[in-house]
Amino acid sequence: MCVYGLTKKFPSSEIYGLVSQMRRSAISIPSNIAEGRRRGTRKDYLQFLRIAYGSGAELETQLLIAGKLSFGEKTDYTNAEKLLDEIMRMLNIMVGKLQLLPILDSKAKKLTSYKLQAN
Protein backbone atom coordinates (compact mmCIF):
# COMPACT_ATOMS: atom_id res chain seq x y z
CA MET A 1 0.00 0.00 0.00
CA CYS A 2 3.01 2.24 0.50
CA VAL A 3 3.67 2.24 -3.26
CA TYR A 4 0.06 3.14 -4.04
CA GLY A 5 0.27 6.18 -1.76
CA LEU A 6 3.59 7.22 -3.28
CA THR A 7 2.46 6.85 -6.89
CA LYS A 8 -0.73 8.87 -6.29
CA LYS A 9 1.53 11.91 -6.22
CA PHE A 10 3.13 11.18 -9.59
CA PRO A 11 2.22 13.28 -12.64
CA SER A 12 -0.77 12.02 -14.64
CA SER A 13 1.52 11.51 -17.64
CA GLU A 14 3.06 8.56 -15.75
CA ILE A 15 -0.22 6.71 -15.07
CA TYR A 16 0.45 4.16 -17.83
CA GLY A 17 4.21 4.18 -17.36
CA LEU A 18 6.06 4.20 -14.09
CA VAL A 19 2.92 4.25 -11.90
CA SER A 20 1.57 1.11 -13.53
CA GLN A 21 4.93 -0.69 -13.45
CA MET A 22 5.57 0.14 -9.78
CA ARG A 23 2.12 -0.95 -8.69
CA ARG A 24 2.37 -4.22 -10.62
CA SER A 25 5.80 -4.96 -9.13
CA ALA A 26 4.54 -4.22 -5.61
CA ILE A 27 1.47 -6.45 -6.01
CA SER A 28 3.52 -9.20 -7.64
CA ILE A 29 5.60 -9.79 -4.50
CA PRO A 30 2.86 -11.08 -2.15
CA SER A 31 0.94 -12.63 -5.06
CA ASN A 32 3.88 -14.84 -6.01
CA ILE A 33 4.53 -15.82 -2.41
CA ALA A 34 0.89 -16.89 -2.03
CA GLU A 35 0.78 -18.75 -5.33
CA GLY A 36 4.02 -20.60 -4.63
CA ARG A 37 2.86 -21.64 -1.18
CA ARG A 38 -0.37 -23.07 -2.55
CA ARG A 39 1.38 -25.07 -5.26
CA GLY A 40 2.20 -27.73 -2.69
CA THR A 41 5.84 -28.55 -3.45
CA ARG A 42 8.99 -27.05 -2.04
CA LYS A 43 10.48 -26.73 -5.52
CA ASP A 44 7.52 -24.65 -6.72
CA TYR A 45 7.50 -22.58 -3.54
CA LEU A 46 11.20 -21.77 -3.95
CA GLN A 47 10.69 -20.82 -7.58
CA PHE A 48 7.84 -18.44 -6.73
CA LEU A 49 9.83 -16.93 -3.85
CA ARG A 50 12.59 -16.21 -6.37
CA ILE A 51 10.07 -14.61 -8.72
CA ALA A 52 8.82 -12.46 -5.83
CA TYR A 53 12.44 -11.48 -5.12
CA GLY A 54 12.83 -10.49 -8.78
CA SER A 55 9.71 -8.33 -8.55
CA GLY A 56 11.25 -6.67 -5.51
CA ALA A 57 14.40 -5.94 -7.50
CA GLU A 58 12.26 -4.37 -10.23
CA LEU A 59 10.49 -2.20 -7.68
CA GLU A 60 13.82 -1.21 -6.14
CA THR A 61 15.01 0.03 -9.54
CA GLN A 62 11.73 1.82 -10.25
CA LEU A 63 11.91 3.60 -6.90
CA LEU A 64 15.41 4.82 -7.77
CA ILE A 65 14.27 6.07 -11.18
CA ALA A 66 11.19 7.82 -9.78
CA GLY A 67 13.31 9.41 -7.05
CA LYS A 68 15.76 10.74 -9.64
CA LEU A 69 12.81 12.23 -11.52
CA SER A 70 11.74 13.96 -8.27
CA PHE A 71 8.22 12.50 -8.21
CA GLY A 72 6.84 12.74 -4.66
CA GLU A 73 8.41 13.47 -1.30
CA LYS A 74 11.80 12.13 -0.16
CA THR A 75 10.26 10.74 3.06
CA ASP A 76 7.82 8.66 1.00
CA TYR A 77 10.75 7.10 -0.86
CA THR A 78 12.64 6.50 2.35
CA ASN A 79 9.66 4.67 3.85
CA ALA A 80 9.09 2.59 0.70
CA GLU A 81 12.77 1.69 0.44
CA LYS A 82 12.95 0.63 4.11
CA LEU A 83 9.88 -1.56 3.77
CA LEU A 84 11.14 -3.10 0.53
CA ASP A 85 14.54 -3.75 2.09
CA GLU A 86 12.89 -5.61 4.97
CA ILE A 87 10.77 -7.67 2.58
CA MET A 88 13.78 -8.55 0.43
CA ARG A 89 15.75 -9.67 3.48
CA MET A 90 12.85 -11.86 4.62
CA LEU A 91 12.57 -13.43 1.16
CA ASN A 92 16.29 -14.06 1.07
CA ILE A 93 16.17 -15.81 4.45
CA MET A 94 13.14 -17.89 3.43
CA VAL A 95 14.83 -19.08 0.25
CA GLY A 96 18.03 -19.91 2.11
CA LYS A 97 16.25 -21.92 4.79
CA LEU A 98 14.05 -23.80 2.34
CA GLN A 99 17.08 -24.76 0.27
CA LEU A 100 18.80 -26.29 3.26
CA LEU A 101 15.90 -28.24 4.76
CA PRO A 102 16.37 -31.99 4.48
CA ILE A 103 14.01 -33.97 2.27
CA LEU A 104 13.24 -37.65 2.14
CA ASP A 105 14.98 -39.37 -0.75
CA SER A 106 12.37 -41.96 -1.64
CA LYS A 107 14.78 -44.22 -3.54
CA ALA A 108 17.45 -44.33 -0.86
CA LYS A 109 14.93 -44.19 2.02
CA LYS A 110 17.09 -41.68 3.80
CA LEU A 111 17.20 -37.96 4.47
CA THR A 112 19.33 -35.89 2.15
CA SER A 113 19.88 -32.17 1.98
CA TYR A 114 18.17 -30.32 -0.83
CA LYS A 115 19.85 -27.29 -2.34
CA LEU A 116 18.73 -25.69 -5.58
CA GLN A 117 21.19 -23.77 -7.68
CA ALA A 118 20.72 -20.02 -7.67
CA ASN A 119 19.65 -18.55 -10.99
Question: In words, what does this structure look like?
Answer:
The protein has helices spanning 2-7, 18-39, 42-68, 74-100; strands at 102-105, 110-113. Strands 1-2 form a two-stranded antiparallel sheet. A hairpin with a 4-residue loop joins β1 and β2. It has a single domain (2-113), classed as 23S rRNA-intervening sequence (de novo design (two linked rop proteins), Up-down Bundle). α2 (18-39) packs antiparallel against α3 (42-68) and α3 (42-68) packs antiparallel against α4 (74-100). It is mainly α.
Map the helices and strands.
Blueprint: H1 2-7, H2 18-39, H3 42-68, H4 74-100, E1 102-105, E2 110-113
Antiparallel strand pairs: 1-2
Helix pairs in contact: 2-3, 3-4
Which class in CATH terms?
Answer: Mainly Alpha
What is the first-to-last residue Cα distance?
29 Å
| Structural class estimated from helices and strands | mainly alpha
Run of helices and strands: HHHHEE
Instruction: Work out the strand percent.
Output: 5-15%
Number of distinct beta strands: 2
Number of helices: 4
Into how many domains do the coordinates divide? 1
Largest sheet: 2 strands, antiparallel
| Mean pLDDT over the full residue set | 87
CATH H level: which superfamily? Answer: 23S rRNA-intervening sequence
